[in-house]
Amino acid sequence: MHSTLFTIFGLPIRAYGLMMVVGFSLGIWRAVRVSRKRYGIEPERVYDLALVLLVGGVLGARVVFIIINPATESWGSFFAVWQGGLSFHGGLACAMLFGYVYMRIVGLPYWKCCDLVAPSLAIGYAFTRIGCFMNGCCYGCPTNLPWGVRFNDPSTGSGGALTPPSHPTQIYAFAANLLIFWLLTRLERMDRKPGFVFVGYLGLYSIYRFLIEFLRSGYTATLFALGLTQAQWVSIAVIVVSAVMMATVYRKPASP
User: Fold this and answer.
1) How many domains in the chain?
2) How far apart are CA 249 and CA 195, in angstroms?
């Protein structure tokens, strides 16, 4: 794996952080392209909103990850995000909160903005998982499939023993979230109330996350209860809520 790609004046450029920047940049580019035509939001506002969401997302993701993993994480390493210590659900919740406060202050429509950024979230997440692959974290269980990859076993430290050929779940995540992005672009074309695309994203992401955790559980994801991980339980709750909303609030086209 290539956790550190190169150095600039002694500063290490981490693969995880670099791919996060790539995903974030592509997400902004896509949102700017459609913001005015599809949602009536000026592109200049997108840049400001993206910065608020980024700060809120990273802070929330790191805080929640440390809280739910007290045995392996500490507040002293809060900014060591290249180690993969981020909770997506925590980051999403905090970004929504930060975004809500910001949009109330500047007068942006909240649910339209959520719809606008939903496909960009899928893009950003996909490329960040490439960073996970290069970092050697978040891999899956052993496999006999020809594309199995050997990762450094984190319990042995850097340069230690390698895992048996294992599922590259990071690559699966990349492909799945590109598919989610494509599906969201189809949802954008449907005439539904604001929030429809974002709720669709929550449901699609949660289905993907629930399934992928079966390959990660017991390896890079810890079992929580009844043979499921924490992320799977959260995913179940989100799937139920999003399905109910799709069947009720967003069942019919929006009124003219």
Assistant:
1) 1
2) 10
